[in-house]
Amino acid sequence: MTGGPGSKDEFQCAPLFLSLSSKLNGLDQSHKQQLIESANGVFGFVTKSNKTNKLAYWVIDLKKNPQLTWSEESINNALKQLDSKHGRVDVVVSTDDETLLQILRGKINAMQAFSSGKLRVKGSMAVGMRLEPTLRAFRTKTKAKTASTSQTNTKFKATENLLGEMKAVIKTFSQEERQKLLTKVNLIAVLKVTNPENSNESVTYTLNLSKGNTGEVVLNGPASDHKLNQDITVTVNQKDFELLSSGKLNGQSAYMRGKLKLQGNIFKAMSLDDVFQIAKKQKLKAKL
């Protein structure tokens, strides 16, 4: 390909790369690891504007820490911007802006574009052949994540609000009060809240209430996403979780009546009532 470097705004595929970068950064660790295992390569893209013949360079690093960068100058410069420890691009894909746009959208198969001469590959053909399934897997994972997020924002809004209140209250604690609570509770719990109308629908959070934790207490997703080992897993439907949080339902009573399921160290779960009702107690305190 010939032509000088162009501005990112000149390329149709630029917004898709920007979106891809944002979604890549938003994936949880387990999905990132799956992409790394399936792709295991550093992909370079050289694309030529169909209008100006100018060039743009993109690099997607899917070897260690998935990330994407753009450069006006060259693939090598894009790689330097990534601060990649791998030191090289495994495969460079060259095509025009329109073709790359359709490949990223899933409208054109990368291998078909290669066979028809619309796309050229330089470097490891083995890595190049993983491009299409990698893009397809990425699109599938981001769609699933979007659906999951949408579900959380609607059917599980009450859970999100209750945990948000808990986070807000804990942030008002002094360092001494926070550590006193965490020392008393000292557990990592995975909270799985199900839809009362359909138990197959659920949302999962991790409560990092371990002694000495100075970071976030409420985390999205299972403990494994955050490289944590849970002590217990709590499963409860949203209506009963609301009752637990308001103090209208006792955790031990809910467990005995089958409204709350526990896996792991059951004795450690005894202190969860104190945690679930943090926001309620703080509101009562404010009224006094």
Automatic annotation (TrEMBL):
One of its GO terms (cellular component) is cytosol. It comes from the Eukaryota. InterPro entries: SCP2_sterol-bd_dom, SCP2_sterol-bd_dom_sf. Residues 27-135, 170-277 form the SCP2 domain. SUPFAM superfamilies: SCP-like. Transmembrane segments: none annotated. This is Oleate-induced peroxisomal protein POX18.
